[in-house]
What we know:
Blueprint: E1 9-12, H1 16-27, E2 32-35, E3 50-51, E4 56-57, H2 58-71, E5 75-78, E6 81-89, E7 92-99, E8 123-124, E9 133-134, E10 137-138, E11 150-151, H3 166-170, E12 183-189, E13 191-194, E14 198-200, E15 217-219, H4 220-227, E16 247-254, H5 256-259, H6 266-280, E17 285-290, H7 298-309, E18 312-325, E19 328-335, E20 340-345, E21 347-352, E22 354-356, H8 360-367, E23 394-396, H9 406-423
Parallel strand pairs: 1-2, 1-13, 2-5, 13-23, 15-21, 16-17, 16-21, 17-18
Antiparallel strand pairs: 3-4, 6-7, 7-12, 8-9, 10-11, 14-22, 18-19, 19-20
Helix pairs in contact: 1-2, 1-9, 4-6, 6-7
Amino acid sequence: MNKGQKVPVLVIGAGIAGIEASLLLANSGRNVYLVERTSYIGGNVIKFEEVFPNMDCATCMVAPKQQELLANENIKLLMLSQVEAISGSFGDFSVKIKKRARYVDLENCIGCSACFDPCPVEVDNEFEEGLSKRKAIYIPCAGALPNVPAIDTENCLRFKGQECQACQEACIFEAVDFTQQDEELELKVEAIVVATGFKSFDLSKTTQYGYKKFSDVYSAMEIERICASNGPTQGQIFLQSGESPKSVAIIHCVGREEKGYCSSICCMASLKLSHFFKKKLPEVKITQFYSDLCIPGKAYQKFYEEVKESKVDFIRARVTEVSQSGKELAIKYKTEDGKESTLTVDMVILNPALEPRADSAKLAELLNIPQDKDGFFSEKEPDLTSVATIQEGIFIAGCAQGPKDIAETVAEAEAAAGAILSLSR
Ligand code: SF4
Ligand code: SF4
């Protein structure tokens, strides 16, 4: 660090919130350490083909920011990394980071993928929600950035003590490097932005919807990947039989009762899926089962009206059971007046509640900031600011604080970066 230069800022999480906060800080002349636990940047947003309410192309929206981030000399990106310890206070935090080796040289690799085929290992690709396979040396999906694979040491034969160097032999750029080591880094930072995002409610905790029991029952995230042009079916929507679905039910709020809160964006996400299906399969019949519709703001209302006009049915009811009925799925539901009915469809999509990430409690302890009753990081004064915490110099942005849409997430990232810049004056 040059004399007179300010102490860097730490941003935890390289999803859309972390990217936005890092760029704002870096473009204001601040050095940033951006810590990301995975081997790629972009978080959940890069799983989507389009984003509501304008159905903008998600990649077109995020890729320029990702490229700008990778090219920004003020940002030191630490991938495959996690915060292990934090001490100190605003202006003088000490942070220990554990950085796992990638085993592929970021400088030498050109992302040609020639090393993938020779790898004898095949495991479920978690980025694709297990809908496709990947190798032990892999990039999670086409277009993921940086376009450099990582070796998954849990599944790589070499790291299980077996003789294998097929990927290294296939790489003419000598980019596969088994001599890389995990590192422990000690950073000094002035302030911290926590942008760790969310995870979806675990649908395997439900039994009534037939998830993982019936092959044409999907989670919303699985369908997002199926709809994605860089996903496992290149955007083609098929039933397990290979035919296109003629009727689809989308069930909102799965897990809402268990969680006890509205995740606020699932209704719009369900409308988006309807819109997408209608674009791909204009004749498909879509029924949405909801308990409450959360569609705030004029842009969202307009989108809802458009979806309704495309002949999507909305039923306010509680779905009590999904069962197999021949080749179809039978949905039993109960409306508010207590009337029970059944609808048969080809495909069911479950839209789950959003939850805090599983490691939130550990990070909250390290940061010495509270979580709310649902496990999200708590802001200092919920009625006044959604980004400041009780610890001066530690800010939260995006879904780490609670479920929210992309526009709100970006606004919070900007607010967190702005607060740090104003505190540092
Ligand atoms: S490691 Fe080598 S073979 Fe694999 S993608 Fe990079 S350059 Fe291509
Ligand atoms: S060493 Fe073998 S098993 Fe491991 S990533 Fe390379 S090819 Fe795959």
